[in-house]
Every structure is written in structure tokens, then in C-alpha cells.
Amino acid sequence: MDRDFLLVQKMRMGDEEAVESFVTKYYARILSYCQVQIGDHGYAEDMTQETFERFFRSLKQYRHYGKAANYLYVIAANVCHDYHRKRREIVTETLSEQADVRADNPEARLDVQMAFRRLPEEIRETAILYFLQERKQKDIAAMLGIGLPLVKYRIRRARELLTAYLRDV
Predict the structure, then answer these.
(1) Residue 31: is its pLDDT beyond 90?
(2) Long-range contact set of residues 57-62: C-beta below 8 Å, sequence gap at least 24
(3) How many domains is the chain partitioned into structurally?
(4) For the whole model, what pTM was predicted?
């Protein structure tokens, strides 16, 4: 039995420490994901809070089939899609310095962040989960509700586009 299953059971019984432990465990990763998707730290925090609110609202219906993190990423993706739909614009702001992008210097970090922003939305989402969040391909497929071959294609395409974008810098 995994730790998340036990946390979910305790949260269903109203255990506040379990809620705190669960949020602490996943908050930074979901915030980072939302930040890359949204491009604004303040809105990303709002999206992260909305993700956890939706999770807790659906806690009674939640069925633990694997990793709770996968379910959180699905919710976060939906929250971010809702944000973009409502705004009806492409976010062009640069990502905050707290984004989980691994680069040695600030200039390189900004180049990588901007390259990710240039990716088409469906490829960007897969690339963020794979390259930045270090999720497994099969987990990405489950989170996004797509087949593993499509995930592999999107990762390959993202790698090609990122290489081209960064070569132009």
C-alpha cells in the first residue's frame, strides 16, 4: 500500500495533518507545472490553489488507481486550459525565476524558458511533463488521456523544435 493511498484515506476521514502533508508533498511540483503553463507566478499560484480545491472537492469520488500526482496533473492541466480559454490570448510574459528549469546561468535559463513558450500548446504540455517535471512517458499518456505513441511523437517533436529554437539564439 503506498503512502498516497493512506493519505487519501486519512483525508477522507477529516485528518488535517494528512491534508497538510499531501499539499506539502505536491504543492511545489504543481506550482511549477502551472507556472510553465501560465507564464505568470501570481496566476500560477491561483491555478495551483484551484487544482487542490478541485481535488479536495472530488475527494469522495476519487478512486486511487495509481499515483495521486497523476490525478493532480490532470486537474492542473484542466485548470490551465480553462485559464487560457477564458483569457483567449497567448501568454507572452517570461516565466518567473522560480520556474523549475534547469540551466547554469540566467541567460540560458531565459532562452530555454522562451523556447518552451514557443512550442505548440499540445507539444509544450507533453514537453513540460517530460523534460521539466521528469514524468514517465506512460504516466504522461495516462495524465493527458492519449496513447503512448502520441506521447513519444510529441517528445521527439519537442526535442527537434527546442533544438532548433535554441540554435537560433
Answers:
(1) yes
(2) 59/8, 59/11, 59/12, 60/12, 62/8
(3) 2
(4) 0.57
